[in-house]
Amino acid sequence: MTPRTGRRPGKSGSRDAILDGARASFAENGYDGATIRDVARRAGVDPALVHHFFDNKQKLFVAAVEVPVDPAELVAHILAGDLDSIGKRIAYTFLRVWDGQGGTSPMITLIRSAASNAQAARMIREFVSAEILGRITRSLKVPDARLRAALVGSQLIGLAMLRYVIALEPLASASPEDLAEMVAPTLQRYVTEDLPPHR
Amino acid sequence: MTPRTGRRPGKSGSRDAILDGARASFAENGYDGATIRDVARRAGVDPALVHHFFDNKQKLFVAAVEVPVDPAELVAHILAGDLDSIGKRIAYTFLRVWDGQGGTSPMITLIRSAASNAQAARMIREFVSAEILGRITRSLKVPDARLRAALVGSQLIGLAMLRYVIALEPLASASPEDLAEMVAPTLQRYVTEDLPPHR
Questions:
Q1: CB-CB contact of B162 with B171 (8 Å)
Q2: Shortest CB distance from B158 goes to which of A156, A170, A178?
Q3: Contact A188, B186 (CB under 8 A)
Q4: Nearest Cα residue in chain A from B181
Q5: Inter-chain contact B151–A183, Cβ cutoff 8 Å?
Q6: Which end of chain A is more exposed for a tag (fewer CB within 10 A), N or C?
Q7: CA contacts within 13 A on the Cβ side of A149
Q8: How far is B52 from chain A, CA to nearest CA, in Å?
């Protein structure tokens, strides 16, 4: 028999309804278009309850899509330090987080969704633009910060595809430290070195 | 009424049966495990007919999976030239081929399959290992050629994911030339410069 905890049954029911409403709203409206108000309406609750459980849209997305880490924290960690060593900090943080997830990580699921479903791709693109690239762009005192952040992202997502999703050797079995050292100069160049002239 | 062409109906029927058999065999056995003999058996034809239509396993794969370019040709083009400018040659070739495909390219379909389906991932991984990385490894006179080729692949597949599949700005709208110039030094470093010590 399930022990009675004294918890009101409505609470977790509301929380689950909010998460369901959030997934539907993000899928339909993208990250930019979704609102706490729309999520609350779908869940049949007051918007204040959504704020109570999840604080803001970013945290609601992280919970609803089961992003296993808080991107805001990671970005803060990466930006807190010398710009001359940011390439290493990004590479080590990225590989440590992914390797820590194990084989069937929610992040692999995210990459799979983004690759196979246009709605998911839009939702993830808008989230990454607003909450990851946006934060980095505002903090980095370099020209073309958004382009630089996207180039960094291209190296990281490609590494994740080959190492974790496609499992291509020798990338799949390399140690995270070895790989971090190999891609760190690439990331450093994208963040701080001169880019070629472009439109 | 369909005009009679005098063509024997068996011909294109056999060709299609071979392609169907090839897709089934590659999916079930991977690229390494599939054989012309098994494909012929599935198609109910003589192995000689498979060779007649498709020459070898590599070309059969390219046709069956609708790879829109011949990787062997691309690799040959990239390797035919000065090693000091191989980064640019890879970047320009890659972006030119992808941009030339248009929005719903079979290569996007390939990436989607690899991301969402373990059988497809294995098949593509084995094909890329044998026919692309293998060729490059045999030709490059550098240590760690396989690792270097895989690192190059990680930058390229990540660029393709963000530019073509997820359509992240500003990568999605950048000119192919601008992007090629930005990633070329990364590719050049992976191919010819010293890698950090590793196991």
A1: yes
A2: A156
A3: no
A4: A196
A5: yes
A6: N
A7: 25
A8: 32
Residue with tokens 């799979």: A112
∠ at Cα B72 (B68, B75), nearest 5°? 105
In degrees to the nearest 10, what's the CA dihedral of B57, B18, A116, A97? -30
**Nearest Cα residue in chain B from A166:** B121
* Number of residues that this document lists for chain A: 199
Position B65, amino acid: V
Residue A182 tokens read as 């190999």
Q: Which amino acid is at A62?
A: V
| B38-45 CB contacts, 8 Å cutoff, 24+ apart | B43/B14, B43/B17, B43/B18, B44/B17, B45/B14, B45/B17, B45/B18
B116 to chain A, minimum CA–CA distance in Å?
A: 5
CB atoms within 10 A of CB B197: 7
Q: What is the pLDDT of residues A166-177, one digit of tens each?
A: 888 999 999 999
Alpha helices (runs of H) in A6-163, residue ranges in sequence order: 9-33, 36-43, 47-54, 57-64, 71-79, 86-101, 106-116, 118-127, 134-139, 145-160
Does residue B118 belong to the interface with chain A, where contact is any CB pair within 8 Å? no
Q: Identify the residue whose tokens are 């500003």.
A: B170
Name the pLDDT band for B7 (thresholds 50, 70, 90).
Answer: very low
User: For residue range A149-191, what is the model confidence (pLDDT) as tens digits?
Assistant: 999 999 998 998 899 888 889 999 999 999 999 999 999 999 9
Residue written as token pair 């997820």: B166
Q: From CA A1, how far away is CA B46, in angstroms rounded?
A: 66
